[in-house]
Design a protein that fits this description.
The protein has 70 residues and is of the alpha+beta class. It has a single domain, classed as lambda repressor-like DNA-binding domains (434 Repressor (Amino-terminal Domain), Orthogonal Bundle), CATH 1.10.260. The chain has four helices and two strands. Helix 2 packs across helix 3.
Amino acid sequence: MNSGIVNRVKELRTERGWTQEQLAAAVGVSRQSINSIERDRYVPSLPLAFIFARVFERPIDQIFTLEVKK
């Protein structure tokens, strides 16, 4: 069994009309980090996931989900 984290960061960011730079400033990371998260090249730490939840005003599991592949 293989698993990975799937995220909706890009979808939620674009719904708000924010650039990657604006989201990066809101959560306290670089634009490059936002780009890597949106492209599934980087999984954010748990504290950062909580910050995303606060910024997007959604529970963490509506932003990040565990996808289990058999």
